[in-house]
């Protein structure tokens, strides 16, 4: 089916973006990415120290997949760090995409909103296509969008927590108030139903890592997430029935049964 999902003009058929860290082995990472059908993968120059990830084998397997690379600035705490890492990533990975992560609190890895705005402005002016990882705060998201970030990545919950959507009201509000922004929920999803939930809300996509990489069977979990994302998207397009506080029989009992009518 034709997809209208795009990131800064690059069309993607899958609305699932996966991370490349924390897998039991590079080979399992490759299989999980393949099984998920994802077309973009996020990776970090800083975190993915070659010796921790299987060295050259890691890069070889990533290259073989021929996915869109989404470098991220994971672990950065200042504008300067994030900008420098983004520039290095652009040179190495040959892409203008940058997932901008700028951490303001080390306990819950919460993004630093003020520095995020500064760094986004700087990178946009430098020709980057910026995907900021942000909280679900409406005003912050509006400011990032107004700066020129066409894609926003609000969190569902802290990275690696697996808690799922902590504030459905905030995410619903973002979707309603920023109808033209591409909104990808990033971080904190633990099980496929969490991904399905945000897709049903009308989010454009999801990005996740831990839930797949740390599953007992990452390959099967990758498949489950891709199915959940597709199901949530179809449900959003189909339009859910309205909720109500009272019962309404789904099998009408008005009138006379047809067999009784015939007998009379
Ligand atoms: C891989 C990556 O970019 C993470 O920083 C991302 O935010 C995913 O979070 P989870 O690991 O909670 O899915």
Offer a concise description of the structure:
The protein has helices spanning 26-36, 56-65, 79-93, 113-125, 138-147, 168-177, 192-200, 210-213, 218-238, 258-263; strands at residues 6-7, 10-11, 16-19, 40-44, 68-72, 97-100, 103-105, 110-111, 129-134, 151-154, 182-186, 205-208.
Which secondary structure elements does this structure contain, and how are they paired or packed?
Blueprint (H helix, E strand, L loop, with lengths): L5 E2 L2 E2 L4 E4 L6 H11 L3 E5 L11 H10 L2 E5 L6 H15 L3 E4 L2 E3 L4 E2 L1 H13 L3 E6 L3 H10 L3 E4 L13 H10 L4 E5 L5 H9 L4 E4 L1 H4 L4 H21 L19 H6 L1
Parallel strand pairs: 3-4, 3-12, 4-5, 6-9, 9-10, 10-11, 11-12
Antiparallel strand pairs: 1-2, 7-8
The chain binds 1-deoxy-D-xylulose-5-phosphate.
